[in-house]
C-alpha cells in the first residue's frame, strides 16, 4: 500500500515561489478579448486614417496594425528579474554543490545534481563519480550540454555576480590548462617529436583514464635518476593523438610534443594514486637577440644550419620518410629557435647529456653553433650524399 501525505484543512497551501497574475475566468477572458478586438476594428475601419490595404494577401502591415493578442500573465523570468527577486530567489537556490558559489555554466549530472562546469571537470578528473552523491558519472563535462534554464536564472537573478563568475572561470580554465599529470622518462625529447609509449604502471593507467576524455595532454619530464621533479626543471607538453587500451588496463599511445616548459612550483603527489604527480607549468622561450646585428647573424647561421641539415637528413631517400614521421617537417630559417630545436632532436647521438643541455638552453645562437659542429662531423663521416 502506498502512503500519501495528507494536508489538514486548516493547513495553508504554500505560496508559489514566483508570483503570477490571477487567472481570469473563461467568461472574463473572452469578454476582455472581444472588447479589445472591437476597439481595434473601430480604429481600423474604412473611415480611419490608416491607408493600408487590408486585403487578405496584403503583407506589408506594420506590427502596430496587428490585432491584439490575448494579454499574457507575467512570465517565470519576468518574476525573477523583478525588483523583488531577493524575496523569491536566493543565492542558495542557485548554489554549486562543490564551490558553494553561484552556478556558472551549469551542467547537470545523470543523477540530477547541477554543478559549475569547471567544478565538475575537476571532480571527474579525480574519479568518475558525482562529487555530491558519489554515483557513477561517466559524462564528458567539457562537452556536456549546458543546463540552460539554470544559466538563464542565474543571469537574470544575479547579473553582476554571474559576469564576475564568468571571468573567474575563464582565468581558472586558463590556469588549469597548465596543471598536468607528470610522466617521467629517462630520455630527452624535443618539440615536434613523436612519442610512442606502452604504459603499464598503475599510476599511468590512472593518468590515461583521466586525460583521454579530458585535456588529452600530460607533462613529459625527462629524469635520469630518481623520477622526481622540482621547480625549475624542464618539462614538455605531450598531446595525445592515438591510444589503444588493453583488457588489463595497459595502454599503447602515440603523442606529439607541443612545446618546452619549466615547472613553475614544486609538484605534488595525489593521495591514493600510486604516486601520480601533478605540476603547474610556464612556457620556456629562448632569449631574443639584443641588437639588429645579432639578429642578422642569427638569421645567417639559421640558413647555413638548415642547408647542412637538409643535405644530411632530407636528401637521403632512405631516411627522409623516417625523419619526417618522427620529428615532423623541418622549420624554416625565419624561426631560428624552432629550427635549432628540430636539428638538435634529429642529431644522432647516444650522449643524453648533450641533448639535455641543448633542450634546456635558452641561447639560440649557442644551440645552432653546437648543432652545426655536429653536422660538420657527420658530413666528414660521409653522410649527406644522395643515394
Q: Tell me the count of domains.
A: 3
CATH architecture of the largest domain: Roll
What class would the helix/strand composition place it in?
alpha+beta
Overall pLDDT confidence: 80
CATH topology of the largest domain, what is it called?
Answer: Archaeosine Trna-guanine Transglycosylase, Chain: A, domain 4
Computed over alpha carbons, the radius of gyration is 33 Å
The CATH homologous superfamily of the largest domain = LON domain-like
Global morphology:
elongated
Write out the strand line-up for the largest beta sheet, numbering strands in chain order: 3-5-6-7-9
- Element order, helices and strands? HHHEEHHHEEHEEEEEHHHHH
Helical coverage, percent range = 25-40%
Features:
single chain, 387 residues, alpha+beta, Herpes Virus-1, Archaeosine Trna-guanine Transglycosylase, Chain: A, domain 4, 3 domains, 5-stranded mixed beta barrel, two-stranded antiparallel sheet, 12 helices, 9 strands, elongated
